[in-house]
Design brief:
With 481 residues, the chain is an alpha+beta fold. The chain has 17 helices and 14 strands. Strand 2 and strand 3 form a beta hairpin.
Length: 481
């Protein structure tokens, strides 16, 4: 099966847009770079990072990320991009309504001329995965309360029209705790989305991590190679040190070419940045480059930059009328009555409207703003049925995954039993030799072996394949010479 990656699907269109990422989340990878591991249903990823407590003591924050449908490193582009669109609205809210055309156009994925096809499939698939994430951290820094706390939250929920040709807006409901952490002063990291999009997924992670460090200092402290490669960038922890060095060097070279970092004096190239501290233990330092000093793109609030522009345009308003509506009425009322108007057109056609969709929308919006009108019963029933259909789809999906899981467990117990044990024992020995404790080595060996045999099972049983998956990294990182 040929799989198309997000990188292949996102055109190189420059969009001046300042995006935001949550500060603590850029301290670590959200999933492994290896999609064969991370895109398994029910995949759980554990990682960690170091922080300094108020007494200047170095401590470790332990992170656990559970998923329903797995997670791809490519999904972070949509996570940060969509979150940034929500918080950039004039009246930002955890409830964010927007058409997929608006989202992908503002993120530079499609143009106004090319509305996309495969891009929308990838967007929907990424949303499904992001909505299935549960994040836990035992020492997460809460900027609202100014202290480290134990937290658990998701990223977002969504409600999308089941008709793929619908012009109605999509609803994104951000987790209230997560959204509060992003909106809080000192809770978000601003960055240039276009620059971010130019990099491969590993370099994107290093870019955001360094951007946080360079906010306060020109030169990094000694960065531990293995920690950065495994816990920040998401490379496989079983890779040899030489391979990890090569992979990190690739990311450093990309940032050097973009003038985001500089080499320290006396360092001729990225080959020389690593200092050996002990056998298999290396550190490196980087200097902030001139590109980090460039101002971020200014935030625009023109009518076309509003998430409400597309629904109002679909109703039939021109830009001048849309600008007037946006300045006059509450975004919540505009969202509601735009959805009612578009739903009425899709259900009944133009015959539903006595005069026109524009007149229907305007009359109802004015009356609702004066507290003289509420949404019609048919629309409430429509929303109720849509929610019921969504639940039925999720239940069917859960049953299907359960059936797949049962088949896979049977496969491991019978057909692949001997090969599974042999592979696991080999990995177990390798991990123990690398210094892992017996319990930790067994846990990781089992996880890696299950991921390997799940891929084998999927090849032998294509009926359980996952067509939503982006392409694997494959040979993107070439072997070091």
């Amino acid at each position: 099966m040929t799989r198309l990656s997000d990188e292949q699907s996102i055109p190189a269109k420059k969009v001046s847009f300042t995006a935001k990422a949550q500060l603590s989340l850029v301290e670590h990878a959200l999933c492994p770079l290896d999609s064969d591991r991370s895109l398994q249903p029910g995949f759980c990823f554990e990682t960690q990072y170091l922080f300094t407590d108020p007494n200047r003591n170095r401590k470790t924050a332990k992170v656990r990320i559970g998923t329903l449908d797995g997670l791809s490193a490519h999904d972070e582009f949509y996570l940060w991009g969509l979150l940034s669109l929500a918080v950039s609205q004039p009246e930002a809210s955890a409830d964010f309504y927007a058409t997929p055309y608006y989202c992908l156009r503002r993120l530079g994925v499609i143009t106004a001329e090319k509305k996309g096809g495969r891009e929308f499939e990838l967007f929907r698939a990424a949303l499904k995965r992001l909505a299935g994430v549960r994040y836990q951290n035992d020492h997460f820094y809460d900027p609202v309360r100014g202290e480290h706390r134990s937290v658990s939250f998701g990223f977002l929920n969504y409600s999308l029209p089941l008709d793929l040709n619908s012009n109605r807006a999509w609803r994104f409901a951000w987790d209230p705790i997560f959204f509060e952490l992003v909106e809080a002063a000192g809770g978000a990291l601003a960055f240039d989305l276009h620059r971010y999009k130019e990099f491969d997924v590993a370099t994107r992670r290093l870019y955001l991590f360094l951007k946080k460090l360079f906010w306060r200092q020109d030169v990094t402290s000694d960065l531990d190679l293995r920690h950065i490669a495994v816990h920040v960038l998401g490379f496989n922890e079983t890779l040899e040190t030489a391979r990890l060095k090569w992979n990190v060097r690739h990311c450093i070279d990309e940032l050097l070419a973009a003038e985001l970092i500089l080499l320290l004096p006396g360092t001729a190239s990225s080959k020389d940045v690593f200092s050996k501290k002990a056998k298999g233990h290396y550190t490196f330092q980087l200097h902030r480059g001139p590109a980090f000093e460039q101002p971020l793109p200014a935030t625009s609030f023109a009518a076309q930059d509003s998430a409400l522009f597309d629904p109002l345009k679909q109703i039939g308003f021109d830009e001048r009328a849309i600008t007037h509506i946006l300045k006059t009425y509450s975004p919540r009322l505009i969202e509601q009555w735009a959805d009612i108007t578009l739903a009425a057109r899709e259900r009944q056609g133009e015959k539903f409207f006595t005069k026109s969709p524009q007149a229907y929308f305007t009359d109802n919006l004015k009356a609702a703003a004066a507290d003289r009108r509420t949404p019609p019963d048919w629309w409430r029933e429509l929303r109720k049925r849509e929610r019921e259909l969504e639940r039925e789809q999720e239940q069917s999906k859960s049953q299907l995954l359960s059936t797949k899981g049962t088949s896979f467990e049977d496969y491991l117990k019978h057909e692949a039993r001997e090969a599974f044990e042999k592979t696991m024992q080999q990995l177990l020995s390798d991990l123990e030799r690398s210094g892992k404790s017996a319990g930790e080595a067994r846990s990781h060996a089992q996880e890696l072996t299950r991921a390997h045999f799940w891929n084998q099972f999927r090849k032998e049983h294509p009926e359980v394949g996952n067509t939503d998956r982006p392409q694997l990294l494959g040979s993107f990182f070439k072997q070091p010479r």
